[in-house]
């Protein structure tokens, strides 16, 4: 359906190139234009209301436009010091405050914060840090990095290489060399018939160890992992998975990088996904809900051991030759600081925990549906996996685009969700009420009924 002439959708088709979009389709149909938001709802250019079941893109934990304090924090900072940078020891006062706050909030002792503008940039920065410190430590061969099938770590060159989704590599000449792939810890999809979650977790750890031994432990520097995998399908690993994986990594002196870009800031029912999943990271990356999605800001936290290696090499080289103009941008930092205050004052973690049973109960309502293979969730993030054959767990042919079609049908019922692989993801603003959680799944039920 082509857009109305001169509508925003038509102008979008004419002038705007989208990410993660079929450009030809957008040229023909125009974009799905959102003009404003309120609470957990957003509105299109015709005024139609949608319950945003994805907090935009796993970001808008505080909803849309309901926090005048974030606006005030941004305005105040813009008036006092709209910009300063962090090169050659300079820094805005508010950036120092945010670094201190994040280091103090970390789930395990961390030493320093480095700021970026996006999750991708944060993960790329970590790859460079890892290479840099291992060169500095005189072990230039210890550079390979492990990530998992279905991982999502972003789209910049190193982050996209870490991402374990083939669609992000095709025709981009990715992944770069030195990236190793290990198993996705999704028991429903990859567990053997009759295999317990515990045994599956053991098998994942054994397979990781085999990979390390095959490649040579002294060639592998780090492993990246999302505590709960997001864009790969909201995959929640078995309870003992990370303990087993970390035992292997420790044995071979391999760093663990926790990508908290989706899981951080309460989403999984603890402040960090690492706490929910028993991860003890050496390095952490975060973005999205760090500023409730209001301004672009991301961060890397490194522990003392990593920091000391980086510090010593920067002293040897006279500089840590990496820096981003907008690293620690004061206006973004001010909004992030205020966001963290609001999370504390509103007891956002307690709120997610209180809503979790309702969210999971509503999610599990679809378990018996003939098109549904698995319903899974933790905190306020979850997914419903669609299958062609419930008994054999056979997936739909990707070319049928069942998930994306369901996403479009959901729009008719005033619901925004996201297709992630064979699954539909739910990640509503954390300020959603109990009644709104129920309403979100009622809207989904109507959408599913239109497919079946
Ligand atoms: N890491 C994870 C776990 C993510 O989900 C994302 C984005 O969705 C990223 C990294 C990349 O973040 P950005 O899109 O801000 O570059």
TrEMBL record:
<keyword id="KW-0032">Aminotransferase</keyword>
<dbReference type="InterPro" id="IPR049704">
    <property type="entry name" value="Aminotrans_3_PPA_site"/>
</dbReference>
<dbReference type="GO" id="GO:0008483">
    <property type="term" value="F:transaminase activity"/>
</dbReference>
<dbReference type="InterPro" id="IPR015424">
    <property type="entry name" value="PyrdxlP-dep_Trfase"/>
</dbReference>
<keyword id="KW-0663">Pyridoxal phosphate</keyword>
<protein>
    <submittedName>
        <fullName>Aspartate aminotransferase family protein</fullName>
    </submittedName>
</protein>
<comment type="similarity">
    <text>Belongs to the class-III pyridoxal-phosphate-dependent aminotransferase family.</text>
</comment>
<dbReference type="InterPro" id="IPR015422">
    <property type="entry name" value="PyrdxlP-dep_Trfase_small"/>
</dbReference>
<keyword id="KW-0808">Transferase</keyword>
<dbReference type="InterPro" id="IPR015421">
    <property type="entry name" value="PyrdxlP-dep_Trfase_major"/>
</dbReference>
<dbReference type="InterPro" id="IPR005814">
    <property type="entry name" value="Aminotrans_3"/>
</dbReference>
<dbReference type="Pfam" id="PF00202">
    <property type="entry name" value="Aminotran_3"/>
</dbReference>
